[in-house]
C-alpha cells in the first residue's frame, strides 16, 4: 500500500515453498519486483457510516449478488494490471502489423519499378 492506493503483485514459487524461501524472497527480491512493475494500484475508498433504509439495502444486496464480482482488492489490482498489459500488447501488435504491411508495399513498389525499367 502506497499513499492511498493498494497494489498487488503475483510471484510463483513452485510446488511448495519452504518458510526460508518465502522469507528470503520478502527480504531480498520483493522490493526489486515492486520497483520493476509499473502499476498504478486501486484507490482506497473511505466509507462513511450512514444509516440506509432497510428496503434500499435489500435491493442493493440483491443487485450485488446478481453481478459477478471480484472477491478481493488484490485480485482487482491484478486484473487491472492484466488489462493494462493486454491493451499495450494489442497496440504493439497493431503497430507491428502496420509496419509489416508498409514494408511489403514498399517492396512491391520497388519490384514494379525495377520491372518497368527492365531490370
Automatic annotation (TrEMBL):
InterPro entries: UCP021328. Residues 47-70 have a biased composition (Basic residues). Residues 76-101 have a biased composition (Basic and acidic residues). Residues 47-101 are annotated as: Disordered. It holds the Pfam family DUF2992. This is YjdF family protein.
Amino acid at each position: 500500500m502506497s499513499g492511498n492506493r493498494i497494489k498487488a503483485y503475483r510471484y510463483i514459487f513452485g510446488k511448495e515453498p519452504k518458510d526460508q524461501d518465502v522469507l528470503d524472497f520478502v527480504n531480498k527480491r520483493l522490493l526489486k519486483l515492486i520497483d520493476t512493475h509499473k502499476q498504478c494500484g486501486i484507490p482506497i475508498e473511505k466509507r462513511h457510516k450512514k444509516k440506509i433504509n432497510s428496503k434500499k439495502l435489500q435491493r442493493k444486496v440483491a443487485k450485488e449478488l446478481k453481478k459477478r464480482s471480484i472477491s478481493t482488492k488484490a485480485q482487482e489490482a491484478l486484473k487491472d494490471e492484466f488489462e493494462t498489459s493486454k491493451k499495450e500488447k494489442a497496440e504493439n501488435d497493431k503497430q507491428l502489423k502496420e509496419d509489416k504491411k508498409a514494408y511489403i508495399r514498399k517492396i512491391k513498389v520497388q519490384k514494379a519499378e525495377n520491372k518497368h525499367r527492365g531490370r
